[in-house]
Amino acid sequence: MGKTAFIFPGQGAQYSGMGKDFFETYDIAKKVYVTAGEAAGMDVAQLCFTENDRLDVTEYTQIAMLATEVAILKVLEQKGIHADCAAGLSLGEYGALAAAGVMELPELFWLIRCRGIFMQEAYPVGGAMAAVLGLDADTIGRVCEETSGTVSIANDNCPGQIVITGEAQAVQAACEKLQEAGAKRCVPLKVSGPFHSALLAGAGEKLAAELEKVSVKAPEIPYLCNVEADYVTDSAPIKGLLARQVSSTVRWRETMERMLADGVDTFIEIGPGRTLAGFLKKMSRDAKVLNVAKVEDVDAVTAFFGQEA
């Protein structure tokens, strides 16, 4: 048998009602939402389960997504489903932290609440992001460097899909150059800030101050961090990596390539949507990807591992 990884999506996959069936079915999931609400000082369950205009606002999206991911994670763990390693895309890295058991959940939820607020406030107007399709990372990086203003790679998601970020004018100028260089399309993203750019360095500094207030432990299972696309196996670098992550490129393609090279052949995407599964299928036709977003998905996962046993 190969290895199994838990992977956690980031912003963009959220939807009203996410996690409600877990909340209503499993006491352990309900407890997670309550814990998240107490840590964040707000009703996280209501935020996730009712129609509202806050769910797509970064400072609220992040706590909502993480609560849902951790609620599902705890149900899987209760069912005896465990992983050899974990990773998460952007805010999803905090889901990987939960899987690795590096800090207590109230502190984890408090940090993601702070992260969302700091990122929302860091550059409230004048930023932009765009998905660049059909061009390699080296070319995109070079064009960004040659473009006036602040623009850089935010997410290297998978072959053929890379997101750029920065000042709105610089992102627009880079998109024009990238299409001239052979990009199939450049698609503006509906986001509230230039995430994972140098413009958010201040948010990282504020987060670093909050990180100093929490305790971290050595990971119970290794997780791969966005900043270095490498395993984290002890507690020493965790706080620094999380502070840097806010304004650094999310190296997701390299993270998945590393896992595949190390023998991971089963991936469980925990949380709303199938975004990460879509990225992975562009890198490996052989990898098995299981998605757990609904209660009925739990049975499919337990059945899969029962057949493997």
Main attributes of the structure:
309 residues; alpha/beta; six-stranded mixed beta sheet; 13 helices; 47% helix
Quick summary:
Helices cover about 45% and strands about 15% of the residues. The chain has helices at about 20-25, 25-40, 45-50, 60-80, 95-100, 105-120, 135-145, 170-180, 200-210, 240-245, 250-260, 275-280, 295-309, and strands at about 5-10, 85-90, 125-135, 150-160, 160-165, 185-190, 225, 230, 265-270, 290.
Model description:
The chain is of the alpha/beta class and 309 residues long. Helix content is 47%, strand content 17%. It contains 13 helices and ten strands. It has helices at 20-25, 27-40, 44-49, 58-78, 93-100, 105-122, 137-146, 168-180, 201-211, 238-245, 252-261, 275-281, 295-308; strands at 3-8, 85-88, 127-133, 151-158, 161-167, 185-188, 223-224, 231-232, 264-270, 288-292. The strands form two sheets. Strands 8-7-2-1-9-10 form a six-stranded mixed sheet, with helices on both faces. Strands 4-5-3-6 form a four-stranded antiparallel sheet. Strand 7 (223-224) and strand 8 (231-232) form a beta hairpin. Helix 4 (58-78) packs parallel to helix 5, helix 7 (137-146) packs across helix 8 (168-180) and helix 9 (201-211) packs antiparallel against helix 10. The radius of gyration is 19 Å and the shape is globular. The model has no long low-confidence stretch (mean pLDDT 96).
